Amino acid sequence: MKNKKKVCILVFAKVALDARVMRQIEYARKNYEVDVIGHGDWEAPAGVRYHPVPQTIRKASLFSLALLLVGNVYPAAWEYYYWRRKEYTQALEILRNGTYDLIHANDIYALPVASKAVDGSGTRLLFDAHEFYFEQGESAQMIRVRKPYLKDLFNKYRSHIDRMVTVSEGIAALYQSQFNMASELILNAPFYVEHPYHPVDPARIQLVNQGAAIPGRRIEELIAMMPYLHERFHLNLLLKPSNKDYYELLRRKARQTGPDRVTIHDQVPPNTITHAINKFDIGIHLLDADNLNHYYALPKKLFDYIMAGLASAITPLPEMRSIVERGQVGVVSPDHSWQSMAKILNSLTAEQINTFKRNSLELART
Fold first, then answer.
1. What element of type H or E holds 38?
2. Which CATH architecture is the domain 6-185 placed in?
3. Domain 205-364: CATH class, spelled out
4. Parallel, antiparallel, or unpaired: how do β-strands 48-52 and 33-39 relate?
5. CA-CA 20 to 30 A from 129: which of 13, 109, 172, 273?
6. Among 211, 154, 156, which residue's Cα sits nearest to residue 183?
7. Which residues, given as ranges, of the chain have pLDDT below 70?
8. CA distances in angstroms from 11 to 79, 165, 347, listed in the order given
9. pTM of the model
């Protein structure tokens, strides 16, 4: 019997909480011998060997900021800034001690490790760009500071990339136009799971937003919007406390708004999200067009809402808008303000919401 080829999936995130990576693993283990390098407690499925590496938690500091700024004059500072994390050197050692046909590097921070590992080895490198990293950040100021560093990192190590995938057509076009890097599209859509249809209760319309609690995602504005919505609306938040200070801020604002309008639920594992939200009615996402990464975003939560049979309410971003309008699965606000979102939600009838919900279940099957 011919031996299976060996793949290593490399991700510097908590494996159990990364839905895209979990789908990679599930697909790969059916066809290859699979190793995974990543963070956190995780019980690997049959046929998969897990190499956990510790996660370095460093808060923003003047020293880190100085290294990022000095790198504009002395690029060696950027190399030091990157390689001082122990998990990167540990992962590189694991890769060099193994024999792989392919390394699947998730995110830009895995790229240098994977590139050094494949250099001269004959191992192929697949790079999965989950974002357009050079426009990603919690603030415009942080994006400006980190952009030269991340561009240098990508340009230095991208020569070893054999194939590249990304999450939306717009982001693929950015990599092509700015770096002459062609990429294939793998959407953040979950594996198909059948879910039942639940007609909306016209007196209790359940909104939901789920994902990481990170500043810049405007979740606090969703809470602030609730007093301006008809009393028939209730907001449910299923949040990963990625930023603990921001998460606590949201909890305080939810308490102030009142349990009759906002409920914060416990976090659920990625593979159970669509089951958890199937009982709700409208998935809502309030995202700005303040950078290119946001402008061309096509996040997993939109596909979760569709898979779970919910209507979707989104801001006018082109990639999401195309799916929502083409599939007739929800509404798009006229602009990016919560005020315009509130107006369009207040205008919805139960019949419209039910039509969107049925269309979502139909679209999920395709």
1. strand 33-39
2. 3-Layer(aba) Sandwich (3.40)
3. alpha beta
4. parallel
5. 273
6. 154
7. 1-2, 58
8. 19, 15, 43
9. 0.93
Asked whether this chain's domains 6-185 and 205-364 adopt the same fold, the reply is yes
Determine the 3-state secondary structure of 138 from DSSP. Answer: coil
Domain segments of the chain: what residues?
6-185, 205-364
What does the DSSP 8-state code read for residue 204? B
Helix, strand and coil in the chain, % to nearest 5: 45, 20, 35
∠ at Cα 268 (251, 235), nearest 5°? 45
266 token code pair: 């416990």
- Tokens for 206? 């359940």
Q: What are phi and psi of 69, to 5 degrees?
A: -75, -40
For residue 127, which of 136, 138, 118 has the smallest C-alpha distance?
A: 118
Strand partners, 331: 313
For strands 124-129 and 262-265, give the pairing.
Answer: unpaired
Cross-strand partners of 39: 14
Cα separation, 303 vs 23, whole angstroms:
14
